[in-house]
Amino acid sequence: MALWTVHGDGRQLVDEAVVGSGERLSWPLTVGFGLQHLIAMFGTTMLVPLLTGFPASTTLLLSGLGTLLFLLITRNRVPAYLGASVAFVVPMGAAVDHGGAGQGALLGAIMMVGLVVCTFGVAVKALGVRLLETAMPPVVTGGIVLMIGLSLAPQAVSSFGVQPVPAAITLVIVVLATVLSRGMSRRLAVLLGVLGGWISAALLGQVDPARLDAVARAPWFGLPELVSPQLHLSAVPFVAPMVLVVLAELVGNVKAVAAMSGRNLDGQVGDALIGGGLATALAGAGGGSALSSNAPNVGVMAAARVYSTAACMIAAVGAVLLAFCPKLSALISTMPLGVFGGALFVVVGVLALVGVRIWSEAGVDFADPVNLTVLGTALVAGVGDLTLSLGALRLTGLVWGSIGIVLVYPVLRGLADTISTHREV
């Protein structure tokens, strides 16, 4: 039995057609959509190891392998790319500065986070969808998706401002291709925009010469450096709160894809948590940065309306190949930061509005003071990247926002409903 059925004739798409997770187009087109995913994940997946001191090629390798593992465990039903999580940068830095954690201890903590997330996935599968509906109703998942999307807005704006001309060219091409074109040019709008912005940056002399020199010096083949983890308690208190962020991101990915593709994927949430948790544990075991569902890739799917896991697989295989080919990896790293920012403007905006769509379709009442105050406060904390220290422990905005949406909201919702019931009696 084939892993994917061919959508239509595999070459043409009706404007409003949605390519499902179990479908694919012709392989040349699928490779094109895979390249969009590869470009969408490359910026953060290469940035995080530079900020945390992990080998970049190793993170790239384990990101690709982790995504393939995720697709295998979810049986090709949940499209996703698992890239390096930016949310781990601050807590890992705090673990080094205040806890004296070494690289091995950080990797051990990442492994523990992955295993705990996997345990939650097993619980969801054992207890059924009702547990998910109770813990994460649409008002919660919509808030998570909106927060994750908007939390990337500062990165998009700062990247755009570094090189505004190629960034603007990228943005204009993506928007015009999405709004005015039809067929494949609309679906591949992000790839077309990035290529156009990249070429314009080269013509304007805004491609970093040092990176071009690095392409010339880089060998065609090289082995990624593997690093062994150590189970040491020095890093655990700093990294443990990230369990909540990874859970929120993985569930948000499933809910966003479900809302955009018109499919009920609640039954796959347990598998997604198991797959995402094992992928993160694998990254920690080999020396890679922590992995989670990469928000720009979800935005790419929303813009293209192509949710084929075949495209995610192509991106994952591409990441593995790049990890063993320093020259190609160096070539992609020449993509100007402004071009990346121009593309991010669209994809993170689309993702954020998917959260609003989840709220709208669920009929969330924003005249309700609990919805207004708790969700509004949590979103400001997450989007504004509120970073506070509790002793030596530093918690970032995504942690505070996730706490507010996933933990505090259900408690206050229950209290408010109980008080209202007593008053009526």
Detailed description of the structure:
It is a single chain. The chain has 425 residues and is mainly α. The chain has one domain (18-356). The chain contains 20 helices and six strands. It has helices at residues 27-52, 56-73, 89-99, 103-127, 129-135, 138-151, 153-162, 164-180, 184-187, 189-203, 209-217, 236-239, 242-261, 269-286, 295-304, 309-323, 326-332, 337-362, 369-383, 397-424; strands spanning 5-6, 23-24, 82-84, 291-293, 388-390, 393-395. A two-stranded parallel ribbon has the order 1-2. It is globular.
Write the layout of secondary structure elements.
Blueprint: E1 5-6, E2 23-24, H1 27-52, H2 56-73, E3 82-84, H3 89-99, H4 103-127, H5 129-135, H6 138-151, H7 153-162, H8 164-180, H9 184-187, H10 189-203, H11 209-217, H12 236-239, H13 242-261, H14 269-286, E4 291-293, H15 295-304, H16 309-323, H17 326-332, H18 337-362, H19 369-383, E5 388-390, E6 393-395, H20 397-424
Parallel strand pairs: 1-2
Antiparallel strand pairs: 3-4, 5-6
Helix pairs in contact: 1-2, 1-16, 2-14, 2-16, 4-13, 4-14, 6-13, 6-18, 6-19, 6-20, 7-18, 8-10, 8-18, 10-18, 11-17, 13-14, 13-15, 13-18, 13-20, 15-18, 19-20
Low-pLDDT stretches are none
State the helical fraction: over 70%
**Major sheet size, sense and barrel closure:** 2 strands, parallel
Instruction: Measure the end-to-end span.
Output: 60 Å
Order of helices and strands: EEHHEHHHHHHHHHHHHEHHHHHEEH
- The computed structural class is mainly alpha
Radius of gyration: 21 Å
What's the number of structural domains?
1
Number of DSSP helices? 20
* Shape estimate: globular
Oligomer: single chain
